[in-house]
Amino acid sequence: xxxxxxxxxxxxxxGALCRFGLSSYLKNKVSSPFPWGTFTVNxxxxxxxxxxxxxxxxxxxxxFAGTGFMGAxxxxxxxxxxxxxxxxxxxxVTFVLYLAATYIGGILLAWLGYWAxxxx
Amino acid sequence: MAYIAVGIAGVLGALLRYxxxxxxxxxxxxxxxxxxxxxxxxxCLVLSFLTVWFAQAKKIPPxxxxxxTTGWIGSxxxxxxxxxxxxxLLRNGHAAIxxxxxxxxxxxxxxxxxxxxxxxxxxxxxxxxxxADVRS
Lengths: 120, 136
Description:
Chain A is about 85% helix and about 0% strand. Chain A is mainly α. In chain A, α1 (about 5-30) packs antiparallel against α2, α1 (about 5-30) runs parallel beside α3 (about 60-75) and α4 (about 75-90) runs antiparallel to α5. Chain B is mainly α. Chain B has one domain. Chain B has helices spanning about 1-25, 35-55, 60-75, 80-90, 95-125. Classes of the chains: A mainly alpha, B mainly alpha. At the A-B interface, α1, α2, α3, α4 and α5 of A face α1, α2, α3, α4 and α5 of B.
C-alpha cells in the first residue's frame, strides 16, 4: 500500500469505530422514530470535514482525518436505508423531516466549517 | 466481536471508496462529483440488499453481519464528502451543478435503496420485511 492508503486505512478504522460507538449509544439512549444516531454523525462529520477542507491542512493529514476518518465516520447508505424504512412504516412527517434536516443541516454546517476555517 | 468486525470492514470500505475515486474520471474537476455519487448510490443498493438477506440468514454470525453492513458499506459511503463537495461547487459559482448533485443523490439514493430491498426480496423470498436490527 502507498502512503495515502495507510493514512486512509487508519482513519477509516477509527472513523468506523467512532460511528458505530456513537450511533449505538444514541440509539439506546433516545427512543424515537427519528434516526438520531446517523443524523448526529452525519452533521458532526460534515462540520468537521468543512473545517478540514477550509483550513488547507497537509495532504497526508487530510487523507487520514478527511478521506479516512470523516469519510468513514459519516455514512450515506445507512441514512438512505433509515429514510426508506421510515417511508415504509408510513412515518411521513419524520421521513420528510429527516431528509430535509440532514441535507440542509449537513450542507449548512459544512459551509459554516469551511467559511470559519478559511476566514477566521 | 462486533467492534473488531466493524473496524476491519471499515478499513476496507474506506480504501474501496478511495480506489474507486481514483479510477472514476472527472472526480477531481469542478464538475459533477461523479465518484462520490457512484460510491454513495452503489452503497445504498448493496446495504439494503444485505439487510434483507441478513434478516433471514440465521447461520451468519451477527458480528459478520454488522461488520459488512455498518462497517464495510457504512464506511464505503460518505455524507461529509457529499456536503463539502456541494460547498465547493457553490463557492466556485456552480449552483446549478450543486442542485443537480443534491437532487440526484436525494432521489437516486432512495431509488437504489428501494431497488436493493426489492432485489433482496426477489432472491430471498422467505424474508418479508427488511429488518433494521442487523445494522446495530
